[in-house]
Design brief:
The complex is a heterodimer of chains A (300) and B (617).
Chain A (H helix, E strand, L loop, with lengths): L2 H19 L3 E4 L4 H13 L8 E4 L6 H13 L4 E4 L2 H5 L20 H18 L4 E4 L6 E3 L8 E3 L16 E4 L27 E4 L7 H11 L14 E2 L12 E2 L5 H9 L19 H7 L4
Parallel strand pairs in A: 1-2, 1-6, 2-3, 6-8
Antiparallel strand pairs in A: 3-4, 4-5, 7-8, 9-10
Helix pairs in contact in A: 1-2, 5-8, 6-7
Chain B lengths: L26 E8 L5 H11 L7 H12 L13 H6 L6 E6 L4 E6 L7 H9 L3 E7 L6 H12 L4 E7 L8 H17 L7 E4 L23 H7 L13 E2 L2 E3 L10 E5 L4 E3 L3 E5 L3 E9 L8 E3 L3 E6 L10 E4 L5 E12 L11 E5 L2 E14 L7 E2 L9 E14 L10 E6 L2 E11 L5 H12 L8 H8 L4 E7 L5 H14 L4 E5 H6 L3 H4 L5 H17 L3 E5 L8 H7 L5 E6 L11 E3 L5 H14 L6
Parallel strand pairs in B: 1-3, 1-4, 4-5, 5-6, 23-25, 23-26, 24-25, 26-27
Antiparallel strand pairs in B: 2-3, 7-15, 8-9, 9-14, 10-13, 11-12, 11-15, 12-14, 16-20, 16-22, 17-18, 17-21, 18-19, 18-20, 21-22
Helix pairs in contact in B: 10-15, 13-14
The chains are: A alpha/beta (300), B alpha/beta (617).
């Protein structure tokens, strides 16, 4: 059993514990490589099935390739695909891209972090709690219909990895969030061996992190080993650039790289120019403490 | 950049192009513990810097931030990713970071030393295969040096290295170092904890004896920290031990068009082959393995420790989460009483006479303190306390009692099936290891049931076929209480209500057993034990026939419930106590006064049967 097997087997164990203990369970699928590996691990854990809904928060600024890929896999794997979106904020232009023409200091002008707060953090909260409308894919038509289910989710599986950035390294495998979705970093329950936090007070929920011990390199090695389909945006299509991490179009810069496939990405990560550069360096909203504050407040 | 030393040659921080796949590189989780301010984060920061494991620009960014705020640069700042920590100057949680040597990849868990954050330290340490314990040479052994040493031992970490840090502050003095080593080894040996493998004099701030050998402590001939870590063994394979797999779940995805009934779980030790005869404890059910199931993997006929797997069985037997799967000739222990060492972390103390939840491998069951043998303050030398409860951060030697029998191993025999946590309310409040199985008066009956069940001659109809036809599983509902309290009245009402709902129910009154099966006993030498045993064996036959048995008897009280339960280990049992005075404090599933309408009591019991998945909804 090698390290990749060990990581896989621990993640499968965690996923099964989550499924056993949370009747209202969902998995966040950002369409990125990490949560796609998570989706694959769920199929491993449940012998080819995914017995809970996948939730995607669509900011409307996601690159079109991501949406096409999401819908293709949802149909192929017969997923319970749920999408949440703050349609009001988008329609009313309460976003970073829609307020860029305003002069600096204008009260309606929104920063990148403000925008993440609305379109991602708050939409995620609303979708998980059921206070915001959800849409669900109809596997017969491939279209999204309003989701009649408005019950809150109590267990939320996310693909955060400890090596991504500082605040994520503080997570437990099972980390509780309080009634306001807030994360009390300083007062988390103990995690002895494989006994996780599976009892929770009404109104609170638990975030479950099966990929906590994985690194970016492990994720790509696993994608390679299992031949997991990934979005084309991760690969250079001839422009000499590719995305290393996927977010919204306006806040995501591609990196200079000519890696055209998984093998070339692996070479780049192991020995090439990316070895010592942080993965989220292309994410323009992170800055100092930006991400940490969003996370304490319920961001994934 | 002046304080940064170049990584030594032996420390490869990257693999050359074309190197073997990283996945094949061994990986080890290590935890760094010790008293607050003894320099844990500095040790870790320095290890990252000296092995070239920091992302580009990180060191410079932290240096710039320090210059901007006028603070002197410290390696510890590299880890203090959260604003809370930088503000308070202490690590509040277990940060994780990664570094690699020529030998393997490491995940370091930097655990907080502050007493408030003991649960974070434990969370970090519980995942580790080896530990680095840091003691400040100048301050010497302190409360959390002791407490952490004890906890590492209790958590089962056998590979511990002690760094006596800040040797620069004690003039790199050998005698000083040796005094600390001697004092600390003596303390651990007094409380029965495992002694560390190695003591190393280091100065984390100067990078001495971490990655590179110190030039100022020539008297020290032992290995550096990195050499010590690289020499630690990766978790030894458990494939050759006895086979143990706690049942995590039983899956059947019928709606998705999948008819396989898969018993899923992680193999904690040993190996299993298709065709092996296996038993599940405590239910004693046994059958053979038909197939090993997996998604997107090559088919296999054999599997061993570490795999989260699934099996189909050659017979459709009912097994549930929390049972322990083993080979028939090497079953685990089964009891309601466990002797254990535990540490308590709950805000409220661990009290006698109160119910808690025990989580042991995949089993969860109500538990109480049966006997408190010793309470210790592990931060003190000779720290035994005179207490009738276990307070926050105390450790204790206790005998626990569970409501129903659990299957387990002793910690010395099998790690993962010999340790547990205790949940108080919604939170994990304590954790511990099982040191002995205590006799609970049902040992003989349990052994009888095990012999009987292993050799049982099975009919042509399986329990699951019966359950499918009947629309319910077999179960035992026992009414207990004083003579004349109404047991018979409620029992008859329940039997009739179940029958009217087309269930197969049968009232078994103790007097009827007495009239026939016990004929020989009544006139000779009646012992309560033998009456109970015969009653239990009669119930077992009726339950094997798939019935819901409603038992009412004067001869058997709540105290005998455990004995009957031991004889029907594969059957869900409910105890209903009728207690008109309201004095009883014995655990039971439902307690009534005896003046409630029969229909209400019947409805409440049927609800319980639905909740326990004995009856369908």
């Amino acid at each position: 059993m090698d390290s990749l097997d060990q990581l896989e087997q621990q993640s499968v164990y965690i996923l099964r514990e989550a499924f056993r203990h949370f009747e209202r369970l969902c998995m966040l699928w950002s369409i990125g490589k990490d949560s796609t590996v998570l989706l694959w691990l769920a199929r491993k854990a449940f012998f080819g099935h995914v017995p809970f809904p996948l939730v995607h928060i669509d900011t409307s600024y996601k690159l079109p390739e991501m949406i096409a890929y999401r819908d293709r896999l949802a149909l192929e794997y017969k997923l319970q695909m749920v999408v949440g979106q703050d349609a009001d904020a988008i329609r009313e232009g309460r976003t970073f891209p829609a307020t860029q023409h305003l002069p600096d200091g204008h009260p309606d002008k929104l920063s990148r972090v403000d925008c993440c707060g609305i379109l991602k953090r708050d939409s995620l909260k609303g979708t998980l709690q059921g206070t915001m409308p959800r849409k669900r894919m109809n596997l017969q038509t491939g279209q999204y219909d309003p989701d009649p289910d408005r019950e809150p989710y109590h267990g939320v599986i996310v693909g955060a990895r400890a090596d991504e950035e500082g605040s994520r390294s503080k997570e437990r495998y099972f980390s509780p969030r309080d009634k306001n979705n807030a994360w009390d970093v300083g007062d988390q329950p103990p995690e002895f061996w494989n006994q996780f936090k599976t009892d929770f007070a009404p109104g609170t929920h638990v975030r479950i992190h099966p990929l906590l011990d994985w690194t970016e390199l492990h994720v790509w090695e696993y994608i390679k080993r299992e031949s997991i389909p990934t979005v084309s945006l991760y690969y250079d299509q001839g422009s000499g650039t590719r995305y290393r991490s996927l977010g919204c179009g306006p806040c995501q810069a591609p990196i200079q790289s000519t890696a055209r496939n998984v093998d070339e990405i692996l070479v780049e990560l192991r020995s090439g120019k990316l070895r010592n550069i942080a993965e989220r360096s292309g994410r323009l909203q992170d800055g100092k403490h930006g991400l940490e504050e969003l996370r304490r407040d319920g961001y994934m | 950049m002046s304080t940064m030393t170049a990584p030594p040659k032996s420390v490869a921080s990257s693999s050359p192009v074309g190197a073997p796949n990283e996945a094949s590189r061994p990986q080890m989780q290590i935890v760094v513990v010790g008293h607050v301010d003894h320099g844990k984060s500095t040790v870790v920061g320095r290890l990252l810097a000296d092995t070239g494991s920091l992302p580009q620009g990180k060191l410079e960014a932290v240096r710039r931030e320090c210059e901007r705020t006028g603070k002197p640069f410290e390696y510890a700042f590299l880890l203090d990713a959260l604003s809370d920590e930088q503000d308070q100057g202490i690590t509040i949680d277990t940060a994780r970071c990664f570094f690699k040597t020529a030998a393997r990849d490491y995940i370091i868990i930097d655990a907080p030393g502050h007493i408030e954050f003991l649960k974070n330290m434990i969370s970090g340490a519980a995942r580790a295969e080896a530990a680095v314990l840091v003691i400040d040479a100048k301050e010497g052994v302190r409360e959390n040096s002791r407490r952490h040493g004890y906890i590492l031992s209790m958590l089962g970490i056998r590979q511990v290295v002690v760094c006596v840090n800040k040797m620069d502050l004690v003039a790199h003095d050998e005698a000083h170092f040796l005094r600390i080593e001697q004092e600390y080894r003596a303390f651990l040996s007094d409380i029965g904890a495992v002694s560390p493998k190695q003591f190393i004099p280091v100065s984390a701030i100067g990078g001495e004896n971490l990655a590179t050998r110190s030039t100022k402590m020539g008297w020290y001939k032992g290995p550096t920290l990195l050499e010590t870590l690289d020499a630690f063994a990766l978790r030894p394979g458990k494939a050759d031990a006895q086979f143990r797999m706690p049942v995590q779940a039983v899956y059947k995805f019928t709606k998705q068009g999948d008819d396989r009934r898969i018993i899923a779980g992680r193999i904690e030790s040993g190996r299993l082959k298709v065709g092996d005869r296996v038993v599940f404890s405590p239910s004693n059910k046994s059958t053979t393995v038909k197939s090993i199931e997996a998604f997107h993997a090559a088919p296999r006929t054999e599997i061993d420790a570490g795999w989260s797997t699934g099996f189909t069985l050659s017979e459709e037997i009912y097994v549930t989460r929390g049972e322990l799967m083993s080979h028939a000739d090497q079953p685990p222990k089964v009891s309601t009483r466990l002797r254990a060492n535990l540490i308590w972390l709950g805000r409220k103390p661990f009290m006698q006479g109160r119910d808690y939840k025990l989580k042991l491998h995949t089993m969860a069951t109500p538990v109480r303190i049966h006997k408190l043998l010793k309470v210790i303050d592990a931060s003190e030398v000779a720290g035994q306390l005179d207490k009738d409860h276990v307070g926050r951060h105390d450790v204790a030697d206790v005998i626990l009692e569970t409501r129903s029998p659990v299957a387990f191993d002793l910690i010395g025999e099998s790690e993962s099936t010999g340790r547990f946590v205790i949940v108080d309310g919604y939170d994990v409040a304590g954790g511990g290891i099982i040191t002995a199985a205590e006799s609970d008066a049902q040992d003989d009956l349990r052994a009888e049931a095990r012999r009987r069940d292993f050799n049982w001659v099975k009919g042509a109809v399986s329990a699951s076929e019966r359950a499918e036809r009947n629309g319910h599983r077999a179960a035992l509902v026992m009414f207990v209480g004083k003579s004349g309290s109404g047991k018979h009245r409620y029992g008859r009402a329940l039997e009739k209500a179940l029958f009217d709902q087309r269930h197969s129910s049968y009232l078994l009154d103790g007097s009827n057993v007495l009239l026939g099966v016990d004929q020989d006993l009544v006139w000779v030498d009646t012992t309560q034990g033998e009456l109970v045993r015969r009653f239990g064996e009669v119930a077992h036959l009726l339950l094997d026939a798939g019935l819901i048995v409603v038992s009412t008897t004067n001869a058997i009280g709540l105290a005998d419930f455990g004995a009957v339960q031991a004889l029907v280990p594969d059957t869900p049992t409910l105890a209903i106590e009728i207690d008109s005075e309201g004095h009883s404090a014995q655990p039971c599933d439902l307690r009534i006064k005896g003046d409630e309408p029969e229909a209400d009591v019947t409805a409440a019991i049927i609800d319980l049967l639905i909740k326990r998945q004995i009856l369908g909804k």
